Amino acid sequence: MEFEQESSDLPEQMYEALSPLLSLIRTARSISPGKLGILHTLATEGRASAARMRQAIGVSQQAISLTTKELEGLGLIERHRDEADRRKLWFKLTDAGRQKLEHEIQLGQKALMQAIGENLSDEEISLIRAALPALKKINTAVRP
Questions:
Q1: Residue 101 to residue 119: CA distance in whole angstroms
Q2: Which domains does the chain have, with CATH numbers?
């Protein structure tokens, strides 16, 4: 389906609606989006190299290096050498890291829940629920 010209303001409207929500979620959390991205990548993939994490969250090698050291120091991730190729490093989420990730997700969800409860009617909530499949379809198309 081709994007219609009369809908050309839709991306701008979506950005204006979603950007403050993302800020609300980020503000509610206690760690940076980069740290959260690393924890999420490791939770999703089981283990990952620095290169894979860099690709997944879109930050520099230096940012990955600094952030993994910090997360390791906090006991949230572990690094392991590859058994077959000792030059390769793998990172893995610890139990504490898994708990921290879940806590951070809950903080963001709680902030959204409060904003929804304070600002939307039941009808508006139903409209958002109806739009979620389309938003998920867009999300699938843009994931690396």
A1: 27
A2: 31-142 (1.10.10.10)
